[in-house]
Structure formats: structure tokens, C-alpha cells
Amino acid sequence: MNQFTASLWGDEAFSAILSMKPIPEIISIIARDTSPPLYNLTEHIWFQIFGTSEIAVRSLSFLYYLIAVFFVYKIANHLWDKKTAILASVLTFLNPFFFIYAFEGRMYSILAAAVTASMYFFLTQKWVGYVLATSAALYSHHFSIFAVFIQGLWFLKEFFWGEKKVAYSILKSFVAIGILYTPWLIPLYNQTRMVGGGFWLGTPSVPDLGKLILTYLNISLIALILRDWKKNLEKSVFLLLWFAGPIAFAWLISQKFSSIFFDRYLLYTIPGAMLLAGSQMQKFSKYFIAITLIFFLIATFYYFTHPIKRPFRDLATYVKATLDDGDFIVNWYSNGTHHIWETKYYGIGGPIYVPGGGELPFFVGTALMEEDDIITTLPSVSGRVGVVTSGPIEEISLPGYTKESERVFGTLKFVWYTPTLNGVGNEKL
Question: Above 50 in pLDDT, residue 427?
Fold first, then answer.
């Protein structure tokens, strides 16, 4: 078992199910969710070629991850030399937090790849590539706008204190990007209103800010502090803005408006930090870089060979082996958590059972849900009811049913219930 073959978790299964749909439907559904469509469109095409297995899902993300690392190499080689480029790209590849999302079947790797490509083309003043890469970033994740803000600050620096010719090229590129992004402005407005009406994240504190930075840097913080900051100050400032700017923007916005501060939304800043850590080393910094590389290698190897995602494939195999005619599967809704996307992906079905009703929040994937994906009463069935949950089994309440058996798969549980003799009947939907 490794990260390529581990079971999908809820958000990954959501993306996979969405990406299996026709392209017009993908765009229509995701416009009612919270993200831009590029990842799902490319995953749809990928599925047509390589199938829909866990390996196919994870391979696409890993490809985008390698693209991000490639552009780190290109940036370092452009700013310094090949030796620095190799070191910075290895640090990026092995960064423990960044490495986790190399195998996540979501939009985070394509976001990192597109932003890093955007930064490369921006620094090398290749404006066609810059327009395309930045547009791809904006169509991958809304948080890429913070990277564009950093480039906007650099535009102001060029316009007032640098080369006006370069500044005008940047401005024209911004206009072209705006034109390419225009089709998504209305969905963006609607998605922003949804998130502004309430999201699942709490307001971050100053310790939360520090914790995120330490999570991103880990032991490489020492090498970053010890680098020669006085040399090539302009390069250092640009990379520092790439790393710290988006984090600061998201943290400040979360103080005054709806909280959007979350580690994986900002992971595209990590390449900027690794470029800093791997460049302009002083003599004694080499020892800390060596220690960092060893630690990163051990951490990433352990993560790759020890998947921590819930073993939903094992649960689905058990359910299929014990399922009889007349049985009915449901997903128990526990503290905002359900597993309908995993049950759909692994072919065991089962709507979300919400006793007493109540509207589910948009951030649990309601945009993709169909009419019969949520039930408030159990239908009359001739067999048993099987319940999927990752919450406490004790909170499950099925009037008219008695627990027959239970199986635990890590933090996942599956419980079979049989009708109680002379029990209260359940109304049919």
C-alpha cells in the first residue's frame, strides 16, 4: 500500500464523481460550488485516457506536482545557477507538507504548478506564457489571486522605480488575463457570496499564522534564516513576497470578513520559500541544508509508504460481500460529515440519512447532490439497513431496527441493523 493506491477520501471522491460527468455538466455544477473548473476539466480528459482508478486520480496530481518542481528548477537556474536550481527543486520536491498534496486528488497540485509557472514567466518576461499560466492558475483555485497581487506590487515597483517598458508589458498582460477570466466572473461573484455567508473555517489567530509558516518550512526554517540575505536583495524580496504575501493577505482578510485561512489553500507559496532556502547559502549553512534534506527524505518516504486516508475500499469490499437482496445502505450525517461521495465512488451507494430533515450547508458538496441523495425517513425495505459513519456508533438511531453487527475500518464504521420484531414501521419515501 502506498499513496498511489490508498483509498480516496470525501473531497477526492467528490472531484472524481464530478469529473466523470460531461464537460457542460461539470462547469454547471462547479459554478454552484466553491472552486473554478480547470482541475475537473483536466481530470475528465485524464479519465477518458487512463480510467478512474485511485492510481489514475493520484497520477494526475503527481504530474502537476512534477511540473511545479520543474518550474522551481527553471526559476532558480534563471536567478542563480544550475547547482542552486537542483538544490531548490529537491527541497521543493521533498518538502513534507508540499509532498502530501502531490497525491491529493484535488486542485492543489495544479494550483501550485500554474502559480509556479506564472512566476517563472513573470521573472523571465515571457508574456504569452505568463498570460496563459496565470489564467490557468486563476481557473484552478481562487487563492491564486493573491499571487497576482504580489505581481501587481512588482508592477508598481517597475512603473515608479524601474523600467517603464517592462511595467507596460505587465499591464498589458494583466488586461489579457482579465479578458480570459471574464467568463468566470459571474460564477466567482456567486461563489464569493456563498462563502461570505458563512464557511466552515474559524477566524485564525496569530499563533495559527505562525503554525502555518512552521508547517510549510519545517526544519528548512534554519537554512532560510541563515542564508545571505544582503546579496541579491531584489531577488530575495520578490521570493519572500511570493511566500509571505499570500499568507498575510489570507490571514488579514479572515480577520475582517469570512475566514478563508487554510493551509492547503496557500501551499503554492512553498516553492518560493524553498527557492530562498536553497539559494545564497553561507558556508556553515551547508550543514543545515544537509540535515534538512535528510529529514525531508525520511518524512516523505514514511508518508508515501504509510497512507493515512480512511480505508474506504476495504469497507466497500466488506459491504459488497455481506449485502443481500432487500438490504438498504445509508450514510449517517455526523457533525457535518458524511461519506456519500466515497460510497458512490466505490459502488455501494447509499443516500445521506438526516433524521428530522434540515438543509445541509453548501460546503458539504450539495452542488453535486441529486434529489434522492438525502433522505429524512427510512424507506420500507424487506432486508436490513446498513449504516456508514465515521462518528460514534452510539449516536446512530434507527427507530424500528436493532443492531446486528458492526465492523470497524480505522476511523470508519459500518453497522448492519435488522428490523425489530413488532417494531415501528418506517414510512416509504
Answer: no
CA distance 426 to 429: 9
Inter-axis angle of helices 127-138 and 164-181, nearest 10? 40
What residues contact 171, with CB distance under 8 A and at least 6 apart?
A: 155
Q: How far apart are the C-alpha atoms of 192 and 281, rounded to whole Å?
A: 42
Mean pLDDT of the 253-265 span? 92
Pairing of strands 401-409, 412-419: antiparallel
Closest CA to 88 of 302, 295, 292, 304: 292
Grid cell 511545479 in the structure block, residue? 68
Task: Please give the full DSSP string across 178-211, using - where no structure is assigned.
Answer: HHHHGGGHHHHHHHHHHHHT--SPPPP-HHHHHH
Nearest to 268 by CA among 60, 68, 62: 68
Distance between CA atoms of residues 115 and 129, nearest Å = 12
**What span, in angstroms and rounded, lies between the C-alpha atoms of 415 and 391?**
12
Q: Which of 382, 323, 329, 371 is nearest to 353 (CA)?
A: 329
pLDDT tens string 135-167: 999 999 999 999 999 999 999 999 999 999 999
| CB environment 154-191: b (16+ within 10 A), e (fewer) | bbeebeeeeeeeebebbeebbebbeebbeebeebbeeb
DSSP annotation string for 355-388: TT--PPPGGGTGGG--GGGEESSPPP-SS-EEEE
Tens digits of per-residue pLDDT, 301-359? 999 999 999 999 999 999 999 999 999 999 999 888 899 999 999 999 999 999 877 78
Per-residue buried b or exposed e for 392-421, using 16+ beta carbons within 10 Å of the residue's own CB: eeeebebeebeeeeeeebeebbbbbbebee
Cα dihedral 425, 426, 427, 429 in deg (nearest 10): -150
Cα–Cα distance measured from residue 323 to residue 348, given in angstroms and rounded to the nearest whole number: 9
Say how many CA atoms lie within 13 Å of 60 toward its Cβ. 30
Q: What are the two backbone dihedrals, phi and then psi, of residue 251, each rounded to the nearest 5 degrees?
A: -65, -45
Q: What is the DSSP letter of 395?
A: G
Q: Model-level pTM?
A: 0.95
φ, ψ for residue 299, nearest 5 deg = -65, -45
Q: How far apart are CA 201 and CA 208, in angstroms?
A: 12
- Domain boundaries along the sequence of the chain: 10-305, 312-419
Q: Angle at Cα 284 formed by Cα 281 and Cα 288, nearest 5°?
A: 80
Q: How far apart are CA 266 and CA 144, in angstroms?
A: 8
- Residue 148 burial (CB count, 10 A): 19
